[in-house]
Amino acid sequence: MKLATYNVNSINARLPVVLRWLDECQPDVVCLQELKAVQENFPAEALENAGYTSIWHGQKSWNGVAILSRIGQPEEICRTLPGDPEDTHSRYIEAKINEVVIGCLYLPNGNPAPGPKFDYKLRWLDRLIAHGQSLLEQGPPVILTGDFNVIPTEFDVYKPERWVDDALFRPEIRESFRKLVTQGWTDALRKLYPDETIYTFWDYFRNAFGRNAGMRIDHFLLSPAVVPRLRAAGVDRQVRGWEKTSDHAPVWIELD
């Protein structure tokens, strides 16, 4: 089973890119973030024609998450991260596919920091930590994946000294991510490639992609029941070089 995560940076603007990528790379399950589309404008029919059934949670202008599958209908579990009933941002959706629970998330950016957006990011991470613990305690195979907007270590960003005051890299954020992972999750890409430079995002400015001045902020976290099934992982870096593409590249794993 091949699973992928992809921040599309507007599903309708990038639909030709997404459809081309689906056709060429053939993932079985896909988690999408930053749809930037209201619920009724999600291109479910075009994706169905490509062989994928979908569940999604849209939002006008910003945010938005979706789970696609070509190996069975996703059984939706929830479409909000527990812990704050007043949080209306569409940043989390969870489903079961072939007995694997998949949480697709788009964690807040948090800039500028410090400030209200940074405080919201910290609260969101606290809720994710609590929900992550609950998922681990329930026992089934679980995968948390998406755009975490967290650079875990200096090894995960080009010239880390430039990012010390950014909300993606501030010590509080990295510590929260570390706290989440040490509950019992495994960072899939680092499990297989502990020493390689791996980026998943390159800014549109200053020829960042051409210079490989990127960062790794799109992650797969695996529960203990999933880790023995991990066989491969990677980044479809070539997609970032296509015309009218997202500033992220798709990230994928393969499981037995």
UniProtKB/TrEMBL annotation:
Magnesium among keywords: yes
Stretches assigned to the Endonuclease/exonuclease/phosphatase domain: 4-248
SUPFAM superfamilies linked: DNase I-like (SSF56219)
Keywords, ordered alphabetically: Hydrolase, Magnesium, Metal-binding
Pfam families: Exo_endo_phos (PF03372)
The organism's place on the tree of life at top rank: Bacteria
Cofactor(s) annotated in UniProt: Mn(2+); Mg(2+)
Gene3D superfamilies (UniProt xref): Endonuclease/exonuclease/phosphatase (3.60.10.10)
Presence of keyword Protein transport: no
Family to which the UniProt record says this protein belongs: Belongs to the DNA repair enzymes AP/ExoA family.
Protein name as it appears in the record: Exodeoxyribonuclease III
Organism: Parapedobacter defluvii
Gene: xthA1
